[in-house]
Amino acid sequence: MDIMFISGLDIEKMELSNQEILDAVEASLLAQGNGKVVIEPREHLIPNPEFNGHFNILRGYIEPINMAGVKVVGDYVDNYKLGLPSELALLNLYDPRTGIPLAIIDATEITSMRTGALTALGAKYLARKGSKILGHLGSRGTAWWNIVLLDKIFDFEEIRVNSKRPESMNDFVQRVSNYLGKQVKAVSSSEECLAGADIMVEATRLIEPQVLLKTEWVTPGTFVVPYGTISAVEFSLTDVMDKMVVDDWGQCKGGKFGSLRRHVDSGKLSGETLYGELGEIVAGKKAGREDDQEKILFWHRGLSLNDIALGNLIFEKAKKLGFGTKIRYR
């Protein structure tokens, strides 16, 4: 019995298209909205608080593609000091009928891809169709896919980026500008980045809470995506929203991390104030944006389902293209 190991280099050689990434994640949201999945609550492992990081363990099953999976991802804020990504991950894929392990995949880029795809798909259903200005806080791994996949949908006229470390921000902005073939601006403050933007994305790497996204900047028609691990928003942010949407309420209402953890704990974001899950909207069970004046917030924690969907896409392409390494299991 063999297992396929698919490395990061294998994935890079596949040259997945932006549309393939979006389609795979959207299909997983559709399956979720139609109740054809199993999502287990994520678990956290904190080996030692002094290490300034933790592990997330995500588990799930998607019926339409007949695939189960478990992802373990380390989230270590100081990894940049070692020249490493802040998030390093492995995804195991399994046959859900027999428990046979099928693949072990470097899920570091998958984690960034699926996060960006979720941001972009949230905007597809919840942002104004004519959105032309993107304000993005943060230049970490997921920022690339946030901006690239959002721009595929909206073809922005203006993209602004602000980040704590100017050296990494400037390099990031240059790389994205070169890829998109349009100017991406590095700006000096969160206000310059977000105020007046149609779509605001907060993807920071804070060590302790700090207000970087102010409620007063949210005007009619704004779409806001706050998903940093530590809160960078004002406590009043949820008060001005016409709709609040999440990827999975079970994931969002529990745990100790997340941008809106305080809002959940206080009851500002609850089962009563929540509008719905993105999967319900993708499946047509609830409306998305209904007019251009709505202020809409989308908070995503990141789902095993999205990882598994992308992992399955990569697994199938690896078999088709002859990539990956077979490892004898037993």
TrEMBL record:
Oxidoreductase found in the keyword field: yes
EC number: 1.5.1.49
Any single GO CC term annotated in Swiss-Prot or TrEMBL for this entry: cytoplasm
Keyword Signal (UniProt): no
Record Gene3D superfamilies: NAD(P)-binding Rossmann-like Domain (3.40.50.720), ornithine cyclodeaminase, domain 1 (3.30.1780.10)
Domain of life: Bacteria
Cross-referenced SUPFAM superfamilies: NAD(P)-binding Rossmann-fold domains
GO MF annotations, alphabetized: oxidoreductase activity
Keywords from the UniProt entry: Oxidoreductase
Pfam families: OCD_Mu_crystall
Name the record gives this protein: Delta(1)-pyrroline-2-carboxylate reductase
Native organism taxonomy: Bacteria, Bacillati, Bacillota, Negativicutes, Selenomonadales
